[in-house]
Sequence to fold (249 residues):
Amino acid sequence: MRSNTTSAALLAVLRRALRQEGWTARRLAAHFAIGEATAKRWLAGRGLTLDRLEQLAALCALSLADLAREAEQPASDLAQELTLAQELALSSDIFLSFLFMTILGGNSPAEIAADFAVPGPVMALSLARLERLALIDRLPGGRVRPLVDRTIVWRKAPMRALFNERMKRQFLAMDFAAEDAVFVSEVVKLSPRGAAELAEMLEQLRRDVQALAERDRETSRLPRKWYGMLGALRELDMEELRGAAREGT
Fold:
């Protein structure tokens, strides 16, 4: 049982490292000139020899010793909420907050650096700041591990204020009348219990979107772009509608 547990931990570390470096089953199949089904079996730990394990680790600039050391680290519960100090630090730097959120989403610092032409020293300083804030661990091979659960809900004022200042305007500038506009809207009458259930449905949608992004990253050969999604609900101000109804317009 101990051996099985250790093997499972090694595989989990390896899969995480490969995913952060963009090594999907399809890409592995092409690299090793094997079938995609074989690559998937390797990632599941079936038919995986010690030599092959070493070759896979090398794709992430890791050795078997690196895998073993990381696998032996005791698992710790991920934070479900940031402290006020952490949120204040993130909200004071738009790039730092974006970098942290993309890391939570499973994207590697190398991918972010390439997409946004981030100089190496700037990325190194940003990752060091995130580590000092106890938001990530830096691992061998330039990889990182978030110390916060990806389903975190931003409850404190600093990050909400940052979204209000920086992100909201992108959605408000959207032309909802455009033919290619993607949005949904609905008006419903709900009790407080119903509104709470709707809020949970929105949170589940966010988790589904995260899972979609991970699947797409692993399986799609098409180039990917950055998209923003906003789900919101609010009690409607019905005064304008009441006035229109009274006036018959």
